[in-house]
Every structure is written in C-alpha cells, then in structure tokens.
From TrEMBL:
This is Type I-E CRISPR-associated protein Cse2/CasB. NCBIfam families: casB_cse2. It comes from the Bacteria. Residues 180-193 have a biased composition (Basic and acidic residues). Residues 77-101, 180-204 are annotated as: Disordered. It comes from Deinococcus ruber.
Length: 204
C-alpha cells in the first residue's frame, strides 16, 4: 500500500468517526480511560477502513486513542452558528486550514501565546513520551489546541501515533514535529509526512 493510499484510508476512518451518533462519541470519550480499546462499533470501523496493521497490537491501540481524542474535542453533530451577515462577508475559504502535523499545530498555538513557556514545556514532554505516556500527553495537547481554536489533521495524527511503537519511525516523527514547531516558515514543515512507516506486517 502506498503512502497516499494509506492516508486516504486513515482519512476515511476519520470521516466515519464524524458520522457516529452522539452516544457513540461519548463512549469513545470514556474509552480514553481504558488500557485497550473496548468498543465493538469502533472495531468495525477499523476493519472497514484501515489497513490490517491497525487490527491488533499497537495499531489497534493507536486507532482507539486517536478516536477517543477526536471524540473529546470534535462536535460533528453540533448545530453551526449561522449569521447571514457574517456568511456574506466571510467566505468559507477564509477559515484557517488544519496544520500539517501536531508539531505545527502546537507551534501555531505557542506563537499565538507569545511563546508561553508552559506550552513549550508540554510539547517537549510529549516528544519525550514513550508508548505508556503518550495518551496522557496527547490528551493535554489536544485539549490545549481545542481551547486555542486550532484544528487538527486527525488522519495525520493517526499515522504519527502509529509510528510510536517502532524506534526508528518514532524518532522520525519526533524530528518532524520538532521542526514544524520551531521552524514554521521552513517550506518542508508544511508538508505531510511522506515517509512510509514500517510495520511488522510490511517487514516480514
């Protein structure tokens, strides 16, 4: 499977999350407190939309984690606030696009806060997190971004979280996040990760 095909599958998975009913999203929010995923409907979405390496082990945990984080801050069924005068003067294209990865998103927040030290400290702690610590640090990061009204590319986050179980892939993701956080004007930082993430299935 090529990288574009994988990203398309991850995007379809996120789209399916947005189509879930409120009760299912609430269940996903509660699942953040679980050690492993315990949702039959989410398992179905994983099997329907994601490659086979998401169907067990760390891949399954990554899908459950990102789904729970999505449900924590996204409200796809909320009624949009409409104002006819605003609709006429603010075109849809004026809304800011989601940053290309989590480092870019947190960097945008950091600069909006005039380089607040606590935000940088949280980002550095996230970079240093292992698999056991990752969920807690990501929950803090996603909550901060939501409070700052900064969108996330959830499909890219899913791919990046998947990389965390293999040291060489995790290190590459950390480097990409750090570069995007500290060097926002560098052209390469606004490009999605095009490096293939090695999985156990691909290497056997």
């Amino acid at each position: 499977m090529t990288v574009p095909e994988r990203h398309a599958a991850e995007t379809h998975f996120v789209t399916a999350l947005g189509e879930l009913e409120r009760g299912s999203l609430a269940e996903l929010r509660r699942s953040l407190s679980y050690k492993t995923g315990q949702s039959y409907f989410l398992e179905r979405l994983i099997y329907e939309h994601l490659p086979e390496w998401y169907r067990g082990g760390w891949g399954n945990q990554a899908a459950f984690l990102v789904a729970g984080l999505y449900a924590l801050v996204e409200r796809p069924h909320s009624e949009p606030k409409t104002d006819e005068s605003d609709a006429e003067t603010v075109p849809e294209t004026s809304k800011p696009a989601a940053p290309r990865n989590l480092g870019s998103a947190l960097g945008r927040l950091y600069r909006a806060q005039e380089n607040r030290p606590s935000t940088e400290k949280r980002f550095l702690a996230l970079l240093d997190a292992d698999e056991e610590q990752l969920a807690d640090h990501l929950r803090h990061a996603v909550t901060l971004l939501n409070a700052g009204d900064i969108r996330l590319d959830w499909a890219q986050l899913l791919a990046d979280v998947l990389s965390w179980s293999r040291p060489e892939n995790r290190d590459r993701t950390r480097e990409q996040w750090a570069r995007a956080f500290y060097r926002p004007d560098h052209k390469a930082n606004d490009v999605k990760n095009t490096e293939p993430v090695s999985t156990q299935e691909e290497t056997e």
